[in-house]
Amino acid sequence: MRVKWLKGAMRDLDMEVSYLAQEDIDLARKTYSYIRDRVDLIGDFPKSGRPGRVAGTRELVLDRYPYIIPYRVKNNIVEVLRVFHTSRRLPRKWDAV
């Protein structure tokens, strides 16, 4: 399946990477690459994430870095909704934030 990053997800990823880059550019690059690589895999394995907190979604929980990436499958496209650091308070609706 094709993977589509929604605007909120891209904004989240950009903000997280920018924040990390202020202290450690190498960590920022590694984090970005790891997140993108893992998200690409859900195109091949869309049910690999756990059932989401919000109906109709799933969540990719990263093991190397503390992020949760909610997504949904819509019309045979995996839509990446957001990228959240696990220390942040999570919203009730992924795509409404």
TrEMBL record:
This is Putative toxin Y4kP. The keyword Ion transport does not apply. It comes from the Bacteria. Pfam families: ParE_toxin. InterPro entries: RelE/ParE_toxin, RelE/ParE_toxin_dom_sf, TA_system_RelE-like_toxin. The keyword Transmembrane helix does not apply. Belongs to the RelE toxin family. Keywords: Toxin-antitoxin system.
